[in-house]
Amino acid sequence: MLKVPNHQVAGHQAGDGKLGPLVDDSGHFCKPLQSDDRGSKEVFFYTSFSSNTNIPNHIRRFFPTFHGTQLIEASNGSGKQPHLVLQDIFFGRLNPSIMDIKIGSRTWDPEASEDYIQKCFMKDTKRSSLALGFRIDGLQIYESEGSGFWKPDRQLIHEFTAEDVRLVLRKFVSSNSSAGVDPDCTFASTVYGGSGGILAQLLELKEWFEHQTIFHFYSCSVLMVCEKESVVKEMSSGAEVKLVDFAHVVEGKGIIDHNFLGGLCSLIKFISEILTCSDVHTAKASLQDPRKNYIYTNCDTDN
Amino acid sequence: MLKVPNHQVAGHQAGDGKLGPLVDDSGHFCKPLQSDDRGSKEVFFYTSFSSNTNIPNHIRRFFPTFHGTQLIEASNGSGKQPHLVLQDIFFGRLNPSIMDIKIGSRTWDPEASEDYIQKCFMKDTKRSSLALGFRIDGLQIYESEGSGFWKPDRQLIHEFTAEDVRLVLRKFVSSNSSAGVDPDCTFASTVYGGSGGILAQLLELKEWFEHQTIFHFYSCSVLMVCEKESVVKEMSSGAEVKLVDFAHVVEGKGIIDHNFLGGLCSLIKFISEILTCSDVHTAKASLQDPRKNYIYTNCDTDN
User: CB of A301 within 8 A of CB of A276?
Assistant: First the structure.
């Protein structure tokens, strides 16, 4: 009944005798507890978050539902091992496009060991975290029935510059996401925009992060999900934001999570710019040629 | 005509043959150019900021007016040296209370040398920058005609914990700021609150930082100023916010300054809590005893 997930874009992956998460056919995502203190830290977070009555419901929906821990036959054949049983975010999704974005210019908490800080610091500097306040950690973008998904390998993702990140965020909402083509941002207004879109969800999260002093979320990811086919069929875009990976969450001790908030605001700015840009061009295109619904040209924004 | 400023709380200070800023009697603050590239960087910032037409006027007022550079007799007797000629922020102020708050959990820019990064990193960790996203770098709080100012020495300020910062931010708006007394936050609603208060000004800055991608302000300070005596005489509180120290400003390259923004939001949260707390107690006190205008008790806030 348990199998390797179809839509995992980052983190340890099961298969080939390796330990990784498994999903069942009723919407559960079983994540093996990491053997060092990261496993216990993540259990502690989910337990404490679930029982904390100060988390508003409109914020709770951004977190996977927690169903406790369970001994489950591990994917690497090592027998029954403790797993977190969580909501499978992609359950029932048709060809979801997914981005895993690790938030924060720094991915280590101040209580971490010197060695660990040094390791993370090097990674944050080398990748885009330090510069952008976030980095893309994994992605798959649905292209078409024929070509399936664009899922660049880890090495390529690790080398993303600020401009690559900008491009990939545009590809995520484009009907022409193949290499070498200017992304058309066709789906920007439905996936990123609108009252239920990704930008609105990120802004809701931002508002909470401006006030909450309960947790600091180091090395935690924002998952952005959408289904382009649904947009084409004029159904909902399935645009959804979820927070995942809580092995480095620490207590906030009365201080806001300025590291997460800063990075989140930076991501929001990138997405707002894509929306502004695609709005401008949609409007322009409609004026010039009412048969065209969108057009892409370079969009320079001033500040 | 040039003299050592009366109200300097941080940075290099003139006097005793040392090089430091001087003020004249017509509202100018002359800051010697630092001899390494920090001097030229600060001149570059002021020049570029002054001529940039994308800076809105309501934001420009948060920066000291720039009157160019000039050769001026240096305070250390080394003859004529180049100085930045800036607006003297404290000109005409009567016993101003001042806080110099260095914003950002990190005070070094990504292009700095490894040695410099290491030096700043140690300092940011040891002091409150890493934890709070900002640190108090200097302060003077006016107490009374008899006792003058409370101006703790640098060593004490360098040892401020999160709780000390919270306390000092309350002392800043209290009529009883002496040691060992619970600050009464008498002036919180006039200095921090209100449409012209410090919180409103910080929120205006925050809004700009959510969008501006022109500059990244590393190691830059927010100065908060007020005049308690003016409040007592029922005049304006003179509450003012200014940004100073731009020797480590770098180009934003299309990315928001998430390091500054995160720290600014953290400071905003500290100040909002003081306001909420003092509001609650003012209301409580007025209900219980109409002769009392305020009262202080511990204020625990939930999230």
Answer: yes
